[in-house]
Amino acid sequence: MTPEEIADTLTGLFGTSDVAALAQPVVEIAPGSWQVDTSAFRLLVLLSEDNTWLRVLLPIVPIQEAQPFLGQFLEANFDDTQEVRYALSEGVIWGVFQHNTSTLVSADLSNAINRLVSLHQAGLDNVFNRLIESRIRQIIQAAKQQGQSLQATMQSLERFYAEGVMGDINQTSEAREEVLTAWRRQLERLWNES
Q1: 43 and 113 Cβ atoms separated by less than 8 Å
Q2: How far is CA 103 from CA 1, 69, 79, 108, 114, in A?
């Protein structure tokens, strides 16, 4: 892809008002680099000095918020993110896409940018859900090692919530039932897989 094709792709995705070539004096980025500003995010598109590599960056979340989920971010890189990756730099978790410009086509760049925007919109939701699922799997494995059935495991969880061992002791019965319904749904979904 040439710099002109990259600019055209960005303009096609975001419109002319959101795409601006950055002037070198502003942020010391070489010519052929772009910044896309929307109300929701700021996307950076950077070419290497020799225009052979393209890198697209989108900040996802500060490291302080992401710290408990670093393992899940790495798992997502392995399992879910496809052509983009999570990366850590300057105290921020970023969504990153890198590609050789000689083999990059507009459709692939567009797809990568759309996936980065999706990661940005999800924020911590996906990695939080991944963490919760791994904890539920641990509970299932422990219950199975003790010879418990799905029903017995669910009864134990109900007792823990009723006694205040889990959840908030001041939780209303409606709120507790809502949480237990979510537990039941997840346990039923994952029981045979674990």
Answers
A1: yes
A2: 7, 34, 24, 10, 19
Q: Tell me the C-alpha distance between 105 and 83, whole Å.
A: 13
**pLDDT tens-digit readout, 61-84:** 999 999 988 999 998 999 888 899
The whole-model pTM stands at 0.71
Length of the chain: 194
Q: Which domain holds residue 172?
A: 129-190
Q: Distance between CA 185 and CA 179 in Å, rounded? A: 10
Burial 23-42 (b: 16+ CB within 10 A, else e): eeeeeebeebbbbbeeeeee
| Number of separate domains in the chain | 2
Do both 89 and 111 map to the same domain?
Answer: yes
| 3-state secondary structure at position 23 | coil
